[in-house]
């Protein structure tokens, strides 16, 4: 019962969190990761591109992997695309389980694998009109690899 | 019927998609190509695509920084390609 969405619109963290326990009393904890757009080096906006079709497929695969590793009662992955301004949310990962360890670990796993395993690309736009593609970081590969 | 010809897919064609700076350098988001039979894998397809235009050549000159997918699954250079495949080329991903 995972929720996976790729969208331009902002999302409602409270509503998404509430949806994971609505109408049920077996959820003991919900861990969350909310990724925001920073304004490093005079950044004016991030423009996120993705590979429609493959993105949803890759996210579904990552969620299935998490569900196989931890006993989750639900999880949510919402990633925005298009133009995102500093301070705005980019990505939301929620993992719900009976106990906190599974929820916290699954949440960390989901964002680590999403960063290296889902086809999104960020382009930075600066106030002076300059623009550059964000380069992948070795530290993200290492974070994903540590889950084995 | 002749009228069908325009919409019929060429039997030897594959769809190639480009994303991020690969798309910008190539100058196209996607194209339908029919490589010769000697092109059997991703590495061979990259070499063959390089010869299509100056933009293709510039993009694939950065070959080590380019990742690929066949039918929406990440793959390596030795992955086979065949007619009817959806092949994509792009930089390492930077979402999240």
Automatic annotation (TrEMBL), chain A:
The keyword Aminoacyl-tRNA synthetase does not apply. Its EC number is 2.8.1.12. It catalyses: 2 [molybdopterin-synthase sulfur-carrier protein]-C-terminal-Gly-aminoethanethioate + cyclic pyranopterin phosphate + H2O = molybdopterin + 2 [molybdopterin-synthase sulfur-carrier protein]-C-terminal Gly-Gly + 2 H(+). Pfam families: MoaE (PF02391). Pathway: Cofactor biosynthesis; molybdopterin biosynthesis. It comes from the Bacteria. Keywords: Molybdenum cofactor biosynthesis. PANTHER family: MOLYBDOPTERIN SYNTHASE RELATED (PTHR23404). Heterotetramer of 2 MoaD subunits and 2 MoaE subunits. Also stable as homodimer. The enzyme changes between these two forms during catalysis. Belongs to the MoaE family. Converts molybdopterin precursor Z into molybdopterin. This requires the incorporation of two sulfur atoms into precursor Z to generate a dithiolene group. The sulfur is provided by MoaD. This is Molybdopterin synthase catalytic subunit. It comes from Teichococcus aerophilus.
């Amino acid at each position: 019962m995972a929720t996976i969405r790729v969208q331009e619109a902002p999302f409602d963290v409270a509503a998404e969190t509430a949806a994971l326990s609505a109408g049920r009393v077996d959820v003991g904890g919900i861990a969350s990761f909310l990724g925001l757009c920073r304004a490093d080096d005079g950044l004016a906006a991030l423009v996120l591109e993705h590979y429609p079709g493959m993105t949803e497929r890759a996210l579904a695969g990552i969620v299935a992997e998490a569900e196989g590793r931890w006993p989750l009662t639900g999880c949510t992955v919402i990633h925005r695309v298009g133009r995102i301004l500093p301070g705005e949310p980019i990505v939301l990962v929620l993992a719900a389980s009976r106990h906190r360890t599974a929820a916290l670990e699954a949440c960390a796993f989901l964002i680590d694998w999403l960063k290296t395993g889902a086809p999104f690309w960020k382009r930075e736009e600066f106030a002076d009109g300059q623009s550059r593609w964000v380069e992948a970081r070795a530290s993200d590969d290492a974070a994903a690899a540590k889950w084995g | 019927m002749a009228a069908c010809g325009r919409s019929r897919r060429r039997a030897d064609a594959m769809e190639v998609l480009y994303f991020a700076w690969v798309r910008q350098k190539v100058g196209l988001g996607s194209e339908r190509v029919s490589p010769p039979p000697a092109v059997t894998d991703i590495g061979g397809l990259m070499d063959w695509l390089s010869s299509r235009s100056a933009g293709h050549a510039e993009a694939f000159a950065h070959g080590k920084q380019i990742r690929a997918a066949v039918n929406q699954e990440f793959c390596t250079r030795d992955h086979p390609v065949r007619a009817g495949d959806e092949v994509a080329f792009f930089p390492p991903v930077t979402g999240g």
